[in-house]
Amino acid sequence: MSRLVLKGLSKAYGPVRVVDDVDLTLQEGEFVCLLGPSGCGKTTTLRMIAGFVEPTAGSISMNGEVLSAPGAVLPPERRRMSMIFQSYAIWPNMTVAENVGFGLKLQKLPAAEVRALTKQILEVVQMGHLADRYPAELSGGQQQRVALARAIVVKPAVLLLDEPLSNLDANLREEMRFEIRRLHDEFRITTVYVTHDQAEAMATADRIAVMNAGRIEQVDAPHLIYTQPRTRFVAAFIGRTNLLEGRLTKNDEIGLDGFTLRPAQLGQRMPDAAQPILLSVRPQAMSLSRHQPELREGWPVLPATVAQRTYLGESWDYVVRPQHSGLQLRVAAPPRQVHEVGEEVWLELDPQQIAIVS
Amino acid sequence: MNDHVAVLTKSATEEARRPGLLRRLRYLEPSNMLWILLVAALLFLVAVPIGKLLVVSFEQRGTGAFTLSNYVTAYGRARYLEALGNSLMLGALSSLLSVVFAVPLAWAVSRTDMPGKGLTWAMVMGAFIMPPYLGAVGWILLAGPNSGFINLAWTWLTGLQAPLVNVYSFFGLALVISLHSFPLIFIFVKSALDLISSEMEDAANILGAGTWTTTRIVTLPLVWPAVLGGIIVVFLETVALFGTPAIIGIPARINVVTTQLWQFFEYPVRVEVAAAYAMPLLLITIGMITVQKLLLARKGFVSQTGKGGERRPIKLGHWRWAVLGYCGFVGLLAVLMPLTVLLQASFAKAWGRGLAWDNLTLGNYGYLLFRHEMALPSIWNTLWFSAASATAAVVIAVLVAYIVARRLVPFGSVLAFLAMAPFVIPGIVMAIGFYAAYAAPPIALYGTALIIILAFTARFLPIAFANSAAAVRAVHPEMEEASRILGGGRLLTIRRITAPLIIRSLIGGWLIVFIVASRELSAAVFLVGPRTRTMSVLLYDLSEAGNFEVLAAFGGLLLAITLILVAIGMKLAGRDFMLRRN
């Protein structure tokens, strides 16, 4: 049974459409990330789900019942959701235990049960020993754990997270990423997670919805978002890539600047003949070698010149120019494979890793 | 849990089916009702008195017909025009003197290793909380031409009969005013200096500039907007000040706008002429505050928000004793000397005889507390007028601040504008507006407590609003949203989350309004009736009677009450709660 459904959801402030006709369905217990650059409408979408913002068109429903529609918004306090905020929003005038128990008390649970559940969840997030501290005495990571405990302890129908890790330093961010996923695996709460950090989205989500300019560009599992981007924006936003424009030739090949590919080998849908074709070639989909490699069926091999190089520690980032072509391609190579600028090399493309974007 | 959700969401679908009805209900939401109520209250408190002031200035007495004769009367005599010129000159001289007192002190406390910073700070605080008219009385005892202590000492030392100093002079008046207004510039400049990191000065040092050059060409120019802002505030305070010019200026035959306005209120009261005569005061204030905003909005002046970098005090070497000496000198003039002579006089049978055992008495206090028919009622009046207006101002202010900050209604900024508007209206002009609008029938509030409370509320609303707005802004909206998403309604959220978080700041704001209201004179003096005299007005009455021992004792009572309140405030809201810059 589908759980949370956004249908044609839109929000406009005056003439500006911040969220534009968003459709998204979350299954029970699913973890979906809204990923996009700042200003793409992802936070507004989340705040509409929470009931803080009224949509100007479309609807949000849960189990088939409408929660939000223009002019009829169920207030946040009646949605049985919970949320983790960018600022954590830990109340400074209450102890850790009081913060975590707040939602339970509002549910009118007996005091003993509130205490027991609070204690239990604080153990889960490894904060049991700090239950009587005030938030000002906690580090950022500890405050984040309190926020997590406070949101999870009420067993919400939907858990919403608004850039929860953006105020943490890099190491802690990585740790909390796994913590959030671990808690999701443990409690299976339907979750919507907003972030602009693709690594965060990849590490946590079952599916990622990439947003741009108020619209959802693509919704897919993380590895599909990466390997099979469907729009130019998704291809460019997720990871680094080379975008190549081509056209279908008479003998059903994709003609690019200087070489051709056979669509059958890309293992993807046939492109439309009339339209220009956009291909995404990841730097990892190509390799460089000093000597001409053995020809493989369908793997284009081109002579090229190294134009620039940058050493990144984990890899080399080369920019090469294939001969008889105006293209400039970024190619990743292992750290020990060293080419000088100006060197002649052979460039090989793996057709399996090339995605037809449109 | 699923059943729960189903029940809840069912009502949502019902609601979704009737958006028309819902939309109509939304207009009746409590926050919208409150908005209308607040607009009405603010119009009554702010817009109507000022509007009425404008209208009255163009009305003929009795008939209400349009006329320009009030303006002809108000500006038709050389004496009235001279008062206007005097006010402007007094404002300029006082703000200049205030800069001379305030800037070195602010620099010394903020940027140097001068000893005795705490003491200097306490002294500035003292000068700030001492009502200016008390300082004026103290300086009459110190620098009266014949029997002032300074002149007596001068004669004793040199044998010369001609007085050394005379408080009853233009310079004397300006000096006494600036000794109580320089803390304003001090606050402005010190908070600006506190924002400058040592790195800014280091950057000049590394290029070859010495300490003094750096201070002159880097540090001081960076705080120039703060100095200018302070000058404008002191100027405006001075031209709108009534107490000190009345106590010192009237005997010295120095007429200024405020004392002239007071004379228009002597029997027969000529409100319409006073209204016409108050216009320059209003226009100057509005104009100068606009100028200040424009100046501060200019690009380049924003660099003072420089953050980060450690702050090291400048090492003054032996100079620090000279700087400390200057701070002590200012403290002597502003607080120690006037306070000493006031206390001496309050316990003296005859103040001119100085400190002597046979001159000591508690009779002045005894007379005020047990035999004077107005002293105790005036204390009671002051306390409850101030408490009532502080409460009203803070309640209105916090509601407006919350509605504006959370954008609960469209056009919330109208509320904020009205709440801040009295900031550009001098208290004395506000009082005349209240008199014109509400003293006469049909509302007939003349001589009631209510008109004073309302006028105080309106006058100090901007202080309360700035305070409340800062308090509400400090509570991140997500603090409230976190409660709502967990099942708390808006009211529960305000009660359990917002209120506990802002209550301390609100108490601080309440106390500030209470304290400034308890010493307010220039608005009160126009609005009190025989039964509603406040301490400040009674003190002014006593000064006219010329019994300085009783006057000083009453000043002592006023000061004691103020000190108790300030002590409570520091305990509840922090040491610097009155000197914080909004």
TrEMBL record, chain A:
<dbReference type="InterPro" id="IPR017871">
    <property type="entry name" value="ABC_transporter-like_CS"/>
</dbReference>
<dbReference type="InterPro" id="IPR027417">
    <property type="entry name" value="P-loop_NTPase"/>
</dbReference>
<keyword id="KW-0547">Nucleotide-binding</keyword>
<dbReference type="InterPro" id="IPR013611">
    <property type="entry name" value="Transp-assoc_OB_typ2"/>
</dbReference>
<dbReference type="Pfam" id="PF08402">
    <property type="entry name" value="TOBE_2"/>
</dbReference>
<feature type="domain" description="ABC transporter">
    <location>
        <begin position="4"/>
        <end position="238"/>
    </location>
</feature>
<dbReference type="InterPro" id="IPR003593">
    <property type="entry name" value="AAA+_ATPase"/>
</dbReference>
<dbReference type="InterPro" id="IPR003439">
    <property type="entry name" value="ABC_transporter-like_ATP-bd"/>
</dbReference>
<protein>
    <submittedName>
        <fullName>ABC transporter ATP-binding protein</fullName>
    </submittedName>
</protein>
<dbReference type="GO" id="GO:0005524">
    <property type="term" value="F:ATP binding"/>
</dbReference>
<dbReference type="InterPro" id="IPR050093">
    <property type="entry name" value="ABC_SmlMolc_Importer"/>
</dbReference>
<dbReference type="InterPro" id="IPR008995">
    <property type="entry name" value="Mo/tungstate-bd_C_term_dom"/>
</dbReference>
<keyword id="KW-0813">Transport</keyword>
<dbReference type="Pfam" id="PF00005">
    <property type="entry name" value="ABC_tran"/>
</dbReference>
<keyword id="KW-0067">ATP-binding</keyword>
From TrEMBL, chain B:
<keyword id="KW-0997">Cell inner membrane</keyword>
<keyword id="KW-0813">Transport</keyword>
<feature type="transmembrane region" description="Helical">
    <location>
        <begin position="383"/>
        <end position="405"/>
    </location>
</feature>
<keyword id="KW-0812">Transmembrane</keyword>
<feature type="transmembrane region" description="Helical">
    <location>
        <begin position="33"/>
        <end position="51"/>
    </location>
</feature>
<feature type="transmembrane region" description="Helical">
    <location>
        <begin position="88"/>
        <end position="109"/>
    </location>
</feature>
<dbReference type="Pfam" id="PF00528">
    <property type="entry name" value="BPD_transp_1"/>
</dbReference>
<feature type="transmembrane region" description="Helical">
    <location>
        <begin position="321"/>
        <end position="343"/>
    </location>
</feature>
<feature type="transmembrane region" description="Helical">
    <location>
        <begin position="414"/>
        <end position="437"/>
    </location>
</feature>
<feature type="domain" description="ABC transmembrane type-1">
    <location>
        <begin position="84"/>
        <end position="292"/>
    </location>
</feature>
<dbReference type="InterPro" id="IPR000515">
    <property type="entry name" value="MetI-like"/>
</dbReference>
<keyword id="KW-1133">Transmembrane helix</keyword>
<feature type="domain" description="ABC transmembrane type-1">
    <location>
        <begin position="379"/>
        <end position="569"/>
    </location>
</feature>
<feature type="transmembrane region" description="Helical">
    <location>
        <begin position="443"/>
        <end position="461"/>
    </location>
</feature>
<feature type="transmembrane region" description="Helical">
    <location>
        <begin position="226"/>
        <end position="254"/>
    </location>
</feature>
<comment type="similarity">
    <text>Belongs to the binding-protein-dependent transport system permease family.</text>
</comment>
<feature type="transmembrane region" description="Helical">
    <location>
        <begin position="548"/>
        <end position="573"/>
    </location>
</feature>
<feature type="transmembrane region" description="Helical">
    <location>
        <begin position="501"/>
        <end position="528"/>
    </location>
</feature>
<keyword id="KW-0472">Membrane</keyword>
<keyword id="KW-1003">Cell membrane</keyword>
<feature type="transmembrane region" description="Helical">
    <location>
        <begin position="274"/>
        <end position="296"/>
    </location>
</feature>
<protein>
    <submittedName>
        <fullName>Iron ABC transporter permease</fullName>
    </submittedName>
</protein>
